[in-house]
Amino acid sequence: MESVSIKDVSLSFGPIEVLKTLNLDVRDGEFIVLLGPSGCGKSTLLNCIAGLLDVSDGQIFIKGKNVTWEEPKDRGIGMVFQSYALYPQMTVEGNLSFGLKNQGMARADIARRIARAAEILQIEPLLKRKPGQLSGGQRQRVAIGRALVRDVDVFLFDEPLSNLDAKLRSELRVEIKRLHQQLENTMIYVTHDQIEALTLADRIAVMKSGVIQQLDDPLTIYNKPANLFVAGFIGSPSMNFFNGRVDGTGTSAWFETATMRLPLTNYRPDGTLVPGRDVILGVRPEQIRINDPDADAGLTVDAVVDVEEPMGADSLVWVKVDGQALSVRTEAGTRFNPGDPVKITFNLALASIFDAQLETRI
Amino acid sequence: MADGTLSPAPGAAAEPLREPRGPKPRKRFSRRNIFIYGTLIFVSAYYLLPLYVMVATSLKGMPEIRIGNIFAPPLEITFQPWVKAWSEACTGLNCDGLSRGFWNSVRITVPSVLISIVVASINGYALANWRFKGADIFFTILIVGAFIPYQVMIYPIVIVLREIGLYGSVWGLVIVHTIFGMPILTLLFRNYFTSIPEELFRAARVDGAGFWGIYFKIMLPMALPIFVVAIILQVTGIWNDFLFGVIYTKPDTYPMTVQLNNIVNSVQGVKEYNVNMAATILTGLVPLVIYFVSGKLFVRGIAEGAVKG
Amino acid sequence: MSASVRPVQLFRNLNAKIAAIPMILTALVIFVGCSFWTIFYSFTNSKLLPKLKFVGIDQYERLWASNRWLISIENLAIYGFCTLVFSLLIGFLLAALLDQKIRFENTFRSILLYPFALSFIVTGLVWQWVLNPQFGIQKIVRDLGFESFTFDPLYNPDIVIYGVLIAGLWQGTGLIMCLMLAGIRGIDQEIWKAARIDGIKTWKTYVFIVIPMMRPIFITSLVIIASQIVRVYDLVVAQTGGGPGIASEVPAKYVYDFLFLNQNLGQGFAASTMMLVTVAIVIVPWAYLEFGRRKHG
Amino acid sequence: MRMRSSVVAMVACLALPISAAQAVELEVTHWWTSGGEAAAVAEFAKAFDATGNKWVDGAIAGSGGVARPIMISRITGGDPMAATQFNHGRQAEELVEAGLMRDLTAEAKAGNWAKLVNPSSLLDSCTLDGKIYCVPVNIHSWQWLWLSHKAFAEAGVPVPTNWDEFVAAAPALEKAGKIPLAMGQQSWQTSGAFAVLMVALAGPDVFQKVYKDKDAKLAAGPEIAKVFAAADNARKMASQSKVQDWNQATNMVITGQAGGQIMGDWAQGEFQVAGQVAGKDYSCLPGLGANEVISTGGDAFYFPKLDDPEKTKAQGQLASLMMSKEVQVNFNLKKGSLPVRGDVDLNAANDCMKKGLAILAKGNIISDPNQLMTPDSLGQINDLFVEFFNDPSITPQDAQKRFAGIVSKAE
User: Fold this and answer.
1) What is the DSSP letter of D184?
2) What distance in Å separates the CA atoms of residue D294 and residue D363, rounded to the nearest whole number?
3) What is the pLDDT at residue C293?
4) Residues 6+ apart with CB under 8 A from B40
5) CB of D219 within 8 A of CB of D228?
6) In the listed set A214, A233, A252, which residue is the last one of a domain according to the structure?
7) Which of A233, A252, A271 is the last residue of a domain?
8) CB–CB of C126 and B50 under 8 A?
9) Which of A34-48, C240-254, D165-179 has the lowest mean pLDDT?
10) Whether the bond into A72 is cis, omega within 30 of 0
11) Interface-testing mutation among D255, D383, D385, D409, with chain C (most C C-beta atoms within 10 A)
């Protein structure tokens, strides 16, 4: 059964269409991440689900109930905000209990809920403090606690980790994942950080200009991006792209550029490769090897090293092939100097080919 | 305070050959400081001059005023003018000075300040967080209203108040002050509430708080600085009001400013400058005290409220 | 699953609408209603009481033929322009001075701000005394030996409006200074660091970097100053009574005098209307751009 | 003293058959706040309080210009006072027409005002459609020139006996460091002085034709040009006079700083408060010593309609009281004005008042501008003259042209 269901929702502010007839079904207990660049409408969508923005058209169902025009408090949701949005004049306890008090819950029940949430989030020692006395990580824990005490079916996260430094971010990321495993609630999580998306999500919805570009599990999104936008947006550094043409069909198809001719024998196309068609080949940095002695000669081309970025566990080598820069992920240890001539080999089994016009994956 | 800015560094200039080390030398009488303090002291003198004239004159007797100039300090200090201004000066047959007006002013100012601020803060809150269709149009009208001269509105408002039966009562005057305080105050509160992170408001809505719940429990406790600014602006504005006080009240409820005008303009024989000055200071005392006491809060409130917009 | 019914627009956000009723009433009944009422009656020849005897634009013809009205407009223009320029200028300069990490900042600030606590009536009276040539500034300077020194702005029709200006600025610049100071302090300290490292002179930093960043403050100041200017009345009445002669008359006083003193409502309303129209032409487009547009996140 | 209170008691009994056990408070607004004025109005209050009622004083300082707007707002705003001062004439005309004022015809009949009031034109100003709406309380004539003996003595010239002599003495006064003519800066003072000059130099008839019949051609003509030339002279003589209020100007005459002042007879109250004696310390020249006339300006009380019958009754009492003989005498002695009753005997009056009474008895009276023109037209004339007196660049010819323009449009 769907936990949250969005049917044909659109939203416009005057002439600007922020959400375009959008559909999304979120399964019970699922962790969905809405991912996209700023201005893509992901936060807007989340606010619509929360009831903080009125949709222009369409319907929103939560647990099978049409909540399109319900007040936020009646939707059975909890929400965590980027800036934590803790009430500065109340103690942590006051922050946690505010919503419950508004529901008219009995004092004892409130205390029980707070105790449980505080235990889960390990914020018991902070209960009497005010938000101003807490660190960023502590504040965000309290903010999560505020959603937690509501004992709701659906958690909404609006870029909750963006205000934290890198270390805290990864710590809390793990904690949120653990929380999800423990609670098994439905969670909808908005972020522009793909690492968060890839690590946390059961499924990722990549959005652009108010439209969901692809909705899939993280691995599919990473390995089989539905279109050029998703391919370029996911992955760091970005996928390498080559403009070229298809030559031949089926297992004997080739990818051709002015200087390169690569066999597509290992490539599993979604559709059919039409000969003569202008296409874009996308290869991730880790699907390229440098100076591999076992390399298939047909998939190997000459390149020149431009810059090397050692990253500890591995390193990133920027090389140039016919003037086009591309990044290659290599194991740490081998050093390259600028100007070194190298041979690079593509692994096309995990590459993607996009129609140059439609920008969709073939 | 600028710690160390003015601390002397003896010898620093006398040993030019020494390599720089230790605290950076600063000259007490640098050209920059002379310019800054010189200008400020000059400007302060300009600002203080009238206050000095008022105080000095109010402490002189009439003969001394006739011979001396107004800037001369009083030779023989007398508090008689103050006593007279407070409790003896006459307007027509009433010779009880400003004392009566003082309490009237209190009776007018307190409810006017309270009601105008309550109304304006709710307006500002609704405009910042609960925008509804047309709200911006009303707000624009309100802002334009801030530029309409009061004189234009006096007559129609007399008619409006007459029609709702509040003309001549203190409540009528309270309404008038609320109306004319509304544009600037609403602007102030709206700017302030807009500057509060929207997410806070959203969090409260998810927590199930409604319009009033959010206002009282979340916004109000956070808005203290701007309330201080609003209170100071309104207390001084309403306390100093003359026009509405004289038009919309009766003699037995005249505020202090009207009494002041009456005393200053009731020349019985010679103009008693000392009494007039004392009366002037007495009338301005309440807002002055408020400013001097809460000046810091006022500046902070302005910094937090009016700056963002 | 059926679509829930879209609620009636009127009742959405009902509490906010109820809370806004005082504002809506004020805007519609007082500011719009009374303005139209005034405009309407400006085409009548109402004397002491409003009467529906229409006389076309007679009142306006008479208004623009009136010497006093023309002087009033001219005075307001001079006073308004100077107040605007000098308030902002002096306010900003003083704020910049106070911002120099000086000692006794609180004292200086209180001194500069206190006149704002005083009413225009008080301000007018005090400056009337200070500027009185028989015992004010002129007299002390003459007593010092400068026999020919003349400084009697309130008694010289050509410069009387500047005498009013001196008092007006004295009363009003403190608040502007406060606003500006708050604005300057509100600017990110890193801007200063950047400017210092770039070797930009302090005054240049103020003029080219700080001032452009203080747009909101300038707008708030502008609203406050401009709304005071149009209303200037008490100050003139207390300080000069419009004199000498009619040299310091202002439009608001013209309106008031005709409404109540000369018992010619029609003429007073015509003058009111001209003020309203001027305000509307200048303010409405600006206010709409500034506040009327919905801003979307 | 004793006799007066008994008269008051008698009047009270006549007007109020029912006992005055219950004190009714009546709020009375007026703009009498100078020394002499306040003393005069106290006479009304004393007499009214003696009837067992209570006079609630609503003085508004700063001349009628400040006070009238407030009074009118109160009345039109539906929260009227019980009684209010206006000048004789047309200031309250529309309020009466709008039915906002109480009809005093009954009181007038009972008190036989029609016979008593002298000159009868005063009562005409109060009458609309045969009903009487106000009580005239005094006659104030504008037509006086007040002269300081001290100033002329110090200048070494004899005290003048008419305007021309006064003008001739001006250089001597100036030489002695005196201001020849004291003149307040308020507009009504300058236009008032001009009207006085017109009566004195062009004669009462011309004045009546210009102000009453609005004869614009005459106003543009040579007779009035003569007046403007005189006004030009007065302007020069008053150029150093930099006070606002009329009584400050009067004070300059009292203290000998100024030679003289053209001002109404209310100035007399100030001389009296200062303890000066007419004929010894100061002189008064009615009609500037040229045309001895009295203008019948002055003050009247109007009684707005009230709902409370008790108060309405008390209003009637107050109206009758103001017209009563004794109150008239006491009030006018203090005020320095002439009584409106022809049958009172002012033995206590000083020289100047006696002069006035004599002229009044002769019937040399003219109306006051307030009785002849609307406040609107007078306001324009005020603006013209305050400008003229303060701006030497306006030639008498220009001013006359504008004056004639105002007269031609007056109603």
Assistant:
1) B
2) 9
3) 57
4) C94, C97, C98, C102, C108
5) no
6) A233
7) A233
8) yes
9) C240-254
10) no
11) D383
3-state secondary structure of D66: helix
Answer yes or no: are the C-beta atoms of D377 and D365 closer than 8 Å: no
In this structure, the answer to whether residues D183 and D322 fall within a common structural domain is no
Q: Please provide residue A104's backbone torsions phi and psi, each rounded to the nearest 5 degrees.
A: 80, 30
B and A interact (at least 3 Cβ pairs within 8 A): yes
Please report, to the nearest 10 degrees, the dihedral formed by the alpha carbons of residues B154, B155, B156, B157 taken in order.
50
How many residue pairs bridge chain A and chain B with CB atoms within 8 Å of each other?
64
Question: What is the Cα–Cα distance from B26 to C42, expressed in whole angstroms?
Answer: 68
Same structural domain, A342 and A273: yes
What range defines the domain where residue D132 resides?
A: 2-140+298-355
Domain of A140, CATH number, reads 3.40.50.300
User: End-to-end distance of chain B based on CA atoms, in angstroms?
Assistant: 29
Q: Would D308 be classed as within a structural domain?
A: yes
Q: Is the ipTM of this complex over 0.90?
A: no
Q: Is some CB atom of chain A closer than 8 A to the CB atom of B74?
A: no
DSSP C115: G
The verdict on residue C2 lying in a domain is no
Residues D249 and D285 in one domain: yes
pLDDT band of B224, cuts 50, 70, 90? confident
**What is the pLDDT, as a whole number, of residue B111?**
94
Inter-residue contact D259 to D181 (CB < 8 Å): yes
Reported as a single tens digit per residue, the pLDDT across B268-278 is 556 677 888 88
Give me the mean pLDDT over the D371-378 stretch. Answer: 85
Domains of chain B, each with CATH number or no CATH:
1-58 (no CATH), 99-305 (1.10.3720.10)
CB D181 within 8 A of CB D243: no
Residue B68: CB partners within 8 Å, gap ≥ 6? B60, B75
Residues A43 and A121 in one domain: yes
Nearest to C264 among D76, D91, D376 (CB): D376
Task: Give the chain B residue nearest D70 (alpha carbons).
Answer: B247
Residue A62 has pLDDT above 50, yes or no: yes
Distance CA D32, CA D49 (A): 19
Report whether pLDDT(B19) > 80.
no
- Using pLDDT thresholds of 50, 70 and 90, give the confidence band for residue C7: low
Q: How many other C-beta atoms can be found within 10 angstroms of the C-beta atom of residue D184?
A: 25
Of A259, A246, A279, which Cα lies nearest the Cα of A361?
A: A279
D360 within a domain of the structure (yes/no): no
- Whichever domain contains D8, its CATH number is 3.40.190.10
A182 and A279 part of one domain: no
Q: How far is A329 from chain C, CA to nearest CA, in Å?
A: 38
Which chain C positions have a beta carbon within 8 Å of B273's beta carbon? 129
The verdict on D7 and D104 lying in the same domain is yes
Residue A184 belongs to what domain range?
Answer: 2-233
Distance in angstroms (rounded) separating the CA atoms of residues D91 and D68:
9
Q: D30: which 2 tokens?
A: 């007026």
D104 domain-assigned: yes
Query: Do residues D161 and D282 share a domain?
Result: yes
CA distance C139 to C130: 10
Q: Cα(first)–Cα(last) distance of chain A, in Å?
A: 32
Query: Which pair of tokens denotes residue D370?
Result: 């307030």
Q: Which residue has the tokens 């018992």?
A: C263
Best residue of C4, C8, C11, C293 to probe chain A, by most A CBs closer than 10 Å: C4
- Please tell me the distance from the alpha carbon of residue A7 to that of residue C3, in angstroms, as a whole number: 10
Judge if D277 and D311 occupy the same domain: no
Q: 3-state DSSP call for residue A251?
A: helix
pLDDT value of residue B1: 41
How far is the C-alpha of D253 from the C-alpha of D269, rounded, in Å? 13
Q: Residues D309-348, buried b or exposed e (16+ Cβ, 10 A)?
A: eebeebbbbbbbbbbbebbbbbbbbbbbbbbbbeebebee
pLDDT at residue number C167: 92
